[in-house]
Write a structure and sequence with these properties.
Length: about 300
């Protein structure tokens, strides 16, 4: 959390402000509507950030003895026992499959998804996001630090080889690979899910504030007030085109522009313990400008999701 903020809880402004702040999140009302339902958020550690936020928003109204968390494979699930509701997270940063090959090469299979998708079956609400890892291959970007729990099968973010059918590629453009991976996901949704039984959302990418030109999140204490030239990330354009071509009615949750204003909401250097000596040299620490503090920005994403539901 950034130190000594000059505000308490800034309200959003913009086209989604009424939707996000139509009322404070009512946990009992949400759980009542989600009674006997499975809600699953699928993606990377930023999606897990959103899952943690949603669990925090609802857990306070549930007695300690009537809630629990379980772990199965790449999933973790919060159970609200009296409501028979589960709020789950499934670790699948590419949605498609990333596997170890010969010589421990990390192979991204653009046309394989079932090893991940088998965990999504039976959910009543599915919330997907996948963009962050696609921009961190060796060739095109440096790799961010990730926790050990995220890397049990693959030590580093990114891939060594891309595979489609029987063909291997070393230098495929990440956005070409992203579109192919999303098309595999889209085909799976179109063929395997029934819109009468399952609501599907795709959340747009969460922006990072790790550039040097005023966006770096260290020591930022206030949101940006506006953009003189709003930037539309290329993955967002790719995603919108894939969703447009689908037959399944996927609800698109666009949080990118509004979230880009919140350069102040990241853990920054405080993602790990900082000693008293270290506090004298905070600028020497690496800043986490990708994830978000809680309470914070992901709460607003979940307020939006609640309103869309």
């Amino acid at each position: 959390m950034q130190s000594k903020p000059t505000y308490n809880r800034p309200l959003w402004s913009g086209p989604f402000s009424d939707l996000a702040h139509s009322g404070r999140f009512n946990a009992l009302e949400f759980l009542g509507r989600m009674r006997k339902k499975r809600i699953m958020l699928v993606g990377d550690s930023i999606v897990r950030n959103q899952w943690e936020s949603l669990v925090c928003l609802v857990q306070s109204v549930i007695p300690m003895a009537r809630k629990t968390v379980t772990y199965v494979g790449p999933t973790m699930a919060f159970h609200a026992m009296d409501f028979e509701t589960t709020i789950e997270f499934c670790w699948a940063p590419f949605l498609v499959e990333l596997k170890k090959g010969p010589e421990n090469k990390r192979i991204l299979h653009l046309d394989m998804i079932e090893e991940n998708a088998k965990y999504w079956r039976g959910a009543d609400v599915l919330v997907f996001d996948s963009a962050h890892w696609w921009t961190h291959s060796d060739k095109y970007s440096s790799r961010p630090r990730v926790r050990a729990v995220e890397t049990a099968s693959c030590r580093n973010v990114g891939w060594d080889l891309v595979m489609e059918g029987n063909s291997f590629y070393r230098n495929m453009n990440p956005m070409v690979a992203y579109e192919k991976g999303l098309m595999t996901w889209a085909k799976w949704v179109d063929l395997n899910l029934d819109p009468r039984k399952t609501r599907v959302f795709f959340r747009s990418m969460s922006p990072r504030h790790n550039r040097e030109n005023g966006w770096k999140c260290f020591n930022q204490r206030e949101p940006l007030e506006f953009f003189s030239h709003p930037h539309v990330p290329e993955p967002l354009l790719v995603l919108k085109e894939v969703l447009r071509r689908m037959s399944f009615p996927v609800s698109f949750q666009d949080i990118t522009t509004m979230t880009a204003l919140r350069r102040d909401g990241h853990p920054s250097v405080y993602s790990k313990f900082v000693s008293q000596t270290g506090k004298q040299h905070l600028g020497d620490y690496k800043s986490d400008c990708s994830h978000w503090c809680l309470p914070g920005v992901p709460d607003t994403w979940n307020e939006m999701l609640n309103a869309m539901l």
